[in-house]
Design a protein that fits this description.
By secondary structure, this protein is mainly beta. The chain is built from one helix and 19 strands.
Amino acid sequence: MLRLCLLLIVVLCACDREAPPGRDTAQTVPIGQGMGIDPDSGFARATLPRAFEFPADHGAHPAYATEWWYFTGNLHTDDDARFGYQLTLFRIGLVPGAAADDSDWRTSQIYMGHLAISDIGQGLHHSRERFSRAAVGLAGAQSDPLRVWLGPWSIDGTPGGTFPIRLKAEDNDIAIALTLERGDRPRVLQGEQGLSRKGAAPGNASYYYSHTRLPTRGEIRITDRNYRVSGNSWFDREWSSSALAADQAGWDWFSLHLDDGRDLMFYRMRGKDGVAQRFSSGVLVDAEGTTHALSLDGVKSEPTRTWQDENGVAYPVAWNLSIPQHAL
């Protein structure tokens, strides 16, 4: 069986919190609504395939409620110390359109960031997060050249060609400074020409493309030790205004670099009954860059180990995946 070099599972959730009694809430927006849960919010929705335009589509899409720039990768030192990393910046639209211009601090956008480094040899995982409004230069995004920033965390492309992309993020005892090259893999439009459906309702979908294997080099830091590293990264771009359907609980998402040179993405949509749903989907990219669409029927996925948090909630942390049609 092929060794799976990278396995990442993402669970996204949002919750509302009531304001204290007596507080004026006329201008507040629950974060769940801000992430596009209300289909009548006025945000644009992903309903049909579209023509992608680059570098414009590397930048923000404020007509939609949410989007992210998602980087993960497998890294190693010359003496084969192995690490995984993640840097993701999210844009969350609070309301459609631009904010009133009566204050420089007003904004209709919030940015959120996740930074993580896994030290494989030590069996340790370090993670941090940041939040900021998109006002007075604190956070934002542009397309040419690509630049997305959240305080000192940044994603910077090269004018005219996007690649190489430079990632920089630091938070107390962890940091990354990485350069990602274009590589020889083509850009992958996920789903139906880039329209990735998550459910049956119109607009319950996203626009989604990936760069699955980007040669990477640079430096990471854990506590007081720096490591020169190289390896490969995965870059995902996705934007939408959709929400889970009433019968959906979430999804398990995998991005895998296989040691035979193939790349695999698969997301497993879960119903509230725990059963995988037919909108689960993915793609297998072979070493020559040819893509093969995957559906729920062709992928067998089974969690083999869970981790339980202090509240007693169990999370799957190890899986068996099988794709017989592609000898996996």
